[in-house]
Design goal:
23% helix, Nucleoside Triphosphate Pyrophosphohydrolase, 35% strand, alpha+beta
C-alpha cells in the first residue's frame, strides 16, 4: 500500500552574492534542528507547483523573486509514497515585509533564517553536515547546471 501525498516544492533562493537562504528548523522525527530550504506542500489539488514555490518563499523567507528556474523533479521514496517534489531556483530576490499576511505558527515559529554562501553549503552537504535530501539535490543540481563539478566526498 502506497502513502498518498499531495506533492511538494522546494526553493533554492540565491542572492547576488551567491548566498542561499536556509532555514534551521527542529524536526521531531529526526530529533534535531535540520538545515532546510523554503518548502511546502501543494495545498490544493492541481495547484501549480511554481505558484506554490512562490508562496513558500514569501511565507517562510519573506522574499519574492524575479527569476524562477525549475531545477529538478524527485520522488522522495517511490517504494512507499507517491510524493513528488519540484525543486526551483529563485533569483532576483526582494524582501517583502509582511509575508503576504502569513503568520509563523507551530514548528515554523521556531525556525531561523540564515544566508549561507552556496559554496559553503555545498561543502557542508558533501561533508555530511547537511543531510536534508532536497537541500542536497537542489545544491548539486544547481552546481552542475552552472558548470561546477563538486569534488568527490572524502573518507
Amino acid at each position: 500500500m502506497a502513502v498518498e501525498h499531495p506533492g511538494a516544492v522546494v526553493v533554492l533562493a540565491v542572492d547576488e552574492q551567491e548566498r542561499a537562504l536556509v532555514l534551521r528548523q527542529y524536526r521531531h522525527p529526526a530529533r534535531m534542528r535540520i538545515v532546510e530550504l523554503p518548502a511546502g506542500l501543494l495545498d490544493e489539488p492541481g495547484e501549480d507547483p511554481l505558484a506554490a514555490a512562490r508562496r513558500e518563499l514569501l511565507e517562510e523567507g519573506a522574499l519574492e523573486a524575479e527569476e524562477w528556474t525549475h531545477l529538478n523533479t524527485v520522488h522522495s521514496s517511490p517504494g512507499i509514497s507517491d510524493e513528488r517534489i519540484e525543486i526551483y531556483l529563485a533569483r532576483g530576490l526582494r524582501e517583502v515585509p509582511d509575508r503576504g499576511g502569513f503568520v509563523l505558527e507551530h514548528e515554523e515559529a521556531d525556525m531561523s533564517l540564515h544566508w549561507v554562501p552556496v559554496a559553503d553549503l555545498l561543502d557542508a552537504a558533501l561533508a555530511r553536515r547537511v543531510t536534508d535530501a532536497p537541500v542536497i539535490i537542489a545544491l548539486l543540481t544547481y552546481a552542475v547546471t552552472r558548470g561546477d563539478r563538486p569534488p568527490p566526498p572524502g573518507p
